[in-house]
Give the backbone structure.
Amino acid sequence: MARILSKRALTSVTKLFVVEAPLIAAAARPGQFVIVRVREDGERIPLTIADYDADRGEITIVVQEVGVTTRLLGALDEGDDILDMVGPLGSAPEIEPGGHVVGVGGGFGAAALLCLMRDLTERGAPTTAIIGARDKGLLILTDELRAVCSHLELCTDDGSAGFKGLVTERLQQLIDGDGEGDGPGRPDRVLAIGPMPMMRAVADTTHDAGIETLVSMDPLMIDGTGMCGGCRITVGDEVKFACVDGPFFDAHQVDFDEAVRRNRMYADMENQAAERQALECQASAGAA
Amino acid sequence: MPVKRIDKTPMRQRDAGVRAHDFLEVNEGYDLSRAMFEAERCLRCQDAVCVDGCPVRIPIPEFIHAIAAGDMAEAASILRGANPLPAICGRVCPQETQCEELCHMNNRFSAAAIGHLERFVADWERDQPANDGARKPWRDEKIAVIGSGPAGLVCAGQLVDMGYPVTVYEALHAPGGVLRYGIPEFRLPNAILDWEIDVLRQRGVEIVTNVIVGKTIALDDLLNDMGFAAAFIGTGAGLPRFLGIPGENLNGVFSANEFLTRINLMRAYDFPVADTPMKVGKRVAVIGAGNTAMDTVRSSMRMGAEKGLIVYRRSETEMTARIEEYHHAIEEGVEFHWLTNPIEVLGNDEGWVTGLKCQVMELGEPDESGRARPVPVAGSEFVIEVDNVVLSIGTTPNPLLLQSTPGLETDRWGCLVADQEFGRTTRPRIYAGGDVVTGAATVILAAGAGKSAAQSIHRDLSAANEAGAGQMTIKATAPPSA
Ligand SMILES: Cc1cc2nc3c(=O)[nH]c(=O)nc-3n(C[C@H](O)[C@H](O)[C@H](O)COP(=O)(O)OP(=O)(O)OC[C@H]3O[C@@H](n4cnc5c(N)ncnc54)[C@H](O)[C@@H]3O)c2cc1C
Ligand code: SF4
Ligand code: FES
């Protein structure tokens, strides 16, 4: 059981929770994740640890409401308990010190960049975070990220804030040398967190330029300890369990086709569950 | 006086046609009259060889005699004195290779139904009103138990009974280990496991779920910062093996662990009431022929598969499953493909499984396991059409804790090195037992290991106390009279 200490709506479907979890906070490293379950008979889903504070015994998680469990979680409030929470799982990315590190975050991935970028900046690396969303209102945690990176680059599809276009287009500009001078400069290493298509696009962008790139894979998981093998992904010619061997892998070695396909294994059943949830909501709203 | 009946008194079972579609228990157990009738078959031999076959040496003739005399309370107390998990072992022990194999009745008739009787007594006990509540621990040394499978649960139970405060740490959200996530309800109903765990809690065992020792907290932190005097590692052998054949990552291929966990721990059979989905097609091939494979193939039919198939590269003789489960699987319509070696999983354009390419094997010389080595027959390849492939080809100990704890030695199979008799690892104050030490084995061996480790923890701590008693205040060694 983990108590929710505070809640903040970042967008209408993205919620930030600060949660009391002293053991996890004390052990956490940047880029690790937790697995939560929010009701009896609920499923277990992984969530990135966006931030942690060992002294206060707190961790921060950011939830984008996309399925049954994330919606249930998003509906919880300050003072509520998250039924089960286990972690920290996986390992921090291995990033050699030195060189300009660019973190690319799509959607809720921006939250995951928070403690990763802070850690790198504190270790003396020049850091840039590139985050993107459809429009200005959907960009999240901009002030927090600005505080922990050397540079923050915003991208919106409609140009309502920062660069008009995709995060990968901005990344390409940095690689091509645009933004020299007072700009952030060419990346030496890239770290991408967010939806699979975005991570894949980042991998493609940095591939030809030969820039070392890590992606944070989020396959379906159950236990998170290496017990089920459901989270397996192919990296180069090896099969890895993302929960224990990852979540960070060499972006240019990951078999994205397979990863995308495996993540959609239950898509039709997930829709069925979501419809059922919507009906339940209507029913309870009708009763109230 | 004992009535000699030729055959074992059969236990009632639910009809195969009905039970193959639900998760309710297959066996219905004895009633009192059948149990007493069967108990009379025991010869009460002078040399009770059955006891030698039991890994925890239950005084078998004694407890059976108590049943015959109608004294169930006595039978229960004899049983529990030796085996803390009788309701579970009575259901899942491979009696045919343990106690019942050695039974003298086997010479001319069939063995006494020791397992059935064990189960009967334990079930009787569960129906009795609960007795005394928890006693407060009367010793100071806290013990940490890591993992809540049979090894950890039994170790914890023995230690609280000796007066130690015990905390069990479990990685998953529910305790029980394989008994919870692996063995399905049609063999071992959750209610029985829940009852055993409730009793442990009443006796004072604290169980903390959602803690992965080695991740959430280091084992050395438990010992050094959190004040635990000793720790027992019972983390099992939960890491699934894969074959490494092409197509293994297609949609619809699972490890048996994932397949069973979705069903048992996450209750996917109740989707969408339960949130975890599970996709089972019309034809399911399970690779392997151990208990896990039988549980998986029978579960697949209960999840709606029309045909469950066992694909095994050796023959029926080398199969490791309990004989009763094999018979039940046959009754339920499982199809067995012996001497069949899978070499590739085939899929369609969308990446879903469509078939399993196999080759025919023949048995050759014995291999290192002493069993005949299967060798491929040239040009014998063929395809079995299936919608799912589930791999049940073995598991190894999870390295998470072992690798994160300095000084713990493992062998070349990744098993933790600990002496079998006392459960001592290569580090002082750290004990271990069960599958993590032996590799995947049995419930009763894990339970037995938990019990002997508890005794050696007690012995070692007592010896250390005596050695230090000069300077220290004398500790209570007996329960305070309440
Ligand atoms: C499907 C199946 C069917 C079986 N059928 C039979 C049968 O019929 N008869 C029989 O005798 N045996 C059977 N077995 C084998 C038997 O279940 C095991 O031998 C037995 O459960 C081993 O007990 P254990 O306590 O060593 O480990 P487990 O039962 O594996 O329990 C280990 C526990 O430790 C937890 N854990 C692991 N790492 C950590 C960590 N770092 N921190 C905290 N917790 C951790 C795990 O989550 C797990 O709950 C079967 C096994 C399976 C998988
Ligand atoms: S515990 Fe197992 S081996 Fe021992 S008597 Fe019972 S069934 Fe037989
Ligand atoms: S989530 Fe089960 S092995 Fe990774």
